[in-house]
Amino acid sequence: MRVRDITEAILRHEGGFVNDPDDPGGATNWGVTIGTMRRLGLDLDRDGDVDVEDVRILPRAKAAEIFEREYFRAPRIHLLPDPLQPSVYDMNVNAGKNAVKILQRVLRDLGEDIAVDGVIGPRTAGAAARIFDRVGDVLVDAYGIARRNYYYRLGDLRPRSRKYARRRDGGKGGWIRRAEQFISPRFHLSEAEHRRRVAKWA
């Protein structure tokens, strides 16, 4: 899959402007947060600061450029096995360096002696290649499952974030559906399993 195809899928999932007070990332547009725009100095309305209005007017094409430069090429996701790249890229947009830390923990669980530092360097890339050569797409599933578990843990720890993992009717929320896009269907949780996982949430 080409990088632009993955980017387009991310943009479709993220949608347009949102300023949800429960989202720690603050105002976002096409998934680009106000924090990212401030870091990049994107004063689009040229009023001397980067604020919510700049987020609101961010063009879709500019968001795609930011994602590919800052969340795919800069973190060197291209060094990972091709089938793993879409999920790690998507998670990097959604959760920053946690995306790579999750991968590194999976690789460590599978026997690789690497640091969990959120950086894709030669050791992480080499470990991913070795594990992929050994187990193939099972690594993609293992990463997706670890990613899904990360979202559930966020819900455990931060009640205001639970609405992203669980719908109002108790079904799977956007975070869980997003993770499962990259997991083989046989490893998807049933609705009953999901509801049991979140039953302790108020």
Question: Quick summary of this structure?
Answer:
The chain has about 200 residues and is mostly helical.
Outline the structure in words.
This protein has 202 residues and is mostly helical. It is 56% helix and 2% strand. The protein has helices at 3-14, 34-40, 52-56, 60-73, 85-95, 98-109, 122-135, 138-157, 162-165, 174-180, 191-198; strands at residues 28-29, 32-33. Strands 1-2 form a two-stranded antiparallel ribbon. The protein starts with a helix and ends with a helix. The model has no long low-confidence stretch (mean pLDDT 95).
Question: In terms of topology, how is this protein built?
Answer:
Layout: H1 3-14, E1 28-29, E2 32-33, H2 34-40, H3 52-56, H4 60-73, H5 85-95, H6 98-109, H7 122-135, H8 138-157, H9 162-165, H10 174-180, H11 191-198
Antiparallel strand pairs: 1-2
Helix pairs in contact: 1-4, 1-5, 5-6, 6-8, 8-10
> What's the total helix number?
11
Written as H for each helix and E for each strand, in order along the chain, the element string is HEEHHHHHHHHHH
How are strands sequenced across the largest beta sheet?
A: 1-2
Q: Residue-averaged pLDDT, rounded?
A: 95
Structural category is mainly alpha
Give the helix level as a range of percent: 55-70%
Strand content: under 5%
Report the radius of gyration as a whole number of Å.
Answer: 17 Å
Give the tags.
single chain; 202 residues; mainly alpha; 11 helices; 2 strands; 2% strand; globular
